[in-house]
Design goal:
Chain B: Residues 106-117 have a biased composition (Basic and acidic residues). Chain B: Keywords: Nucleus, Transcription, Transcription regulation. Chain B: Residues 81-117 are annotated as: Disordered. The complex is a heterodimer of chains A (91) and B (171). Chain A is mainly alpha-helical and 91 residues long. Chain A is 75% helix and 0% strand. Chain A has a domain at 43-90. Chain A contains 5 helices and no strands. The longest helix of chain A has 32 residues, at 45-76. Chain B has 171 residues and is mostly helical. In chain B, helix 1 (3-28) runs antiparallel to helix 2 (37-59), helix 2 packs antiparallel against helix 3 and helix 3 packs antiparallel against helix 4 (87-103). Chain B starts with a helix and ends with a helix. Classes of the chains: A mainly alpha (91), B mainly alpha (171). Chains A and B meet through helix 1, helix 2, helix 4 and helix 5 of A and helix 1, helix 2, helix 5 and helix 6 of B.
Chain lengths: 91, 171
């Protein structure tokens, strides 16, 4: 009883339970490439969040890297080729 | 068919279409000396912004992070267009935060009652996550985790499509 009182100390809004948070953490875990392969129930929530932060950072780095390569490629490729590639990708 | 699978493929095609359109526009703006490092750097910035913008537009306003990202991109382009007016930047960032807070719960402090030292690590990581996900500062924990999952899904789609484009271009 007392634990429920301390948990529901939020003003207005929805009462967020531990189970909801656990479910969301598990859902996040499924998206992470490394943890997905290990036994899923032995990973703590803090570890999942840490891996999530690392994964997002690595994805940002990849986007930066790909943008840079695209920028260099755009400098050299000519436009006719680009139109052909675009029509190929549109399928 | 799994409806989530359907959503992923149409998100991919929406993003691809928008991004390719933006790329051809950027390609058309090429000056004569397009291989100088400065030009390449400027174009890199434009491409990256176009990728983020295409992704946020493909998600529209259905997600808090996409709304926050569109706000950020719009205020940045507004700032670049009128570089003399410094005050405009400050007001736009504060109003964007207010706009996000109006649409989501105002709960920022939301410590889960987990036992042990796990709780402290969890809260620290959650704050780190808030900095990475656009608009994360104004979200409560539940929404933050939900938005993170969707954000990761969209980021992986973005990386996939960009990789394919780079592969095609470097043929």
């Amino acid at each position: 009883m007392s634990s429920r009182r301390s948990r529901s100390r939020q003003s207005g809004g929805s009462r967020i339970t531990d189970d909801q948070i656990n479910d969301l953490v598990i859902k996040l875990q499924q998206l992470l490439p490394e943890i997905r392969n290990r036994h899923s129930d032995k990973v703590s929530a803090a570890k999942v969040l840490q891996e999530t932060c690392n994964y997002i950072r690595s994805l940002h780095r990849e986007v930066d890297d790909l943008s840079e390569r695209l920028s260099e490629l755009l400098a050299t490729t000519d436009n006719a080729q680009a139109a052909i590639i675009r029509s190929l990708l549109m399928q | 068919m799994n409806p989530q699978h359907l959503n992923a493929s149409s998100l991919k095609s929406r993003f691809t279409r928008r991004f390719l359109r933006a790329l051809t526009k950027i390609n058309a703006q090429k000056p004569i000396s397009s291989s100088s490092p400065r030009e390449i750097f400027q174009r890199y910035g434009r491409i990256k912004a176009a990728a983020d913008k295409s992704m946020a537009n493909s998600v529209r306003s259905r997600r808090t992070w996409s709304r926050a990202m569109l706000w950020k991109l719009r205020s940045r382009s507004y700032r670049q267009a009128s570089s003399g007016r410094r005050s405009a930047v400050k007001t736009s960032t504060t109003t964007s935060h207010q706009a996000i807070r109006k649409k989501t719960n105002h709960e920022k402090e939301n410590k889960p009652t987990k036992t042990g030292e796990d709780q402290v690590g969890f809260v620290v990581q959650a704050d780190e996550l808030r900095e990475l996900v656009p608009g994360g500062e104004a979200m409560d924990l539940c929404n933050l985790l939900d938005e993170t999952a969707h954000y990761i899904k969209c980021l992986t789609t973005q990386v996939q499509v960009m990789k394919k484009i780079v592969d095609f271009y470097s043929l």
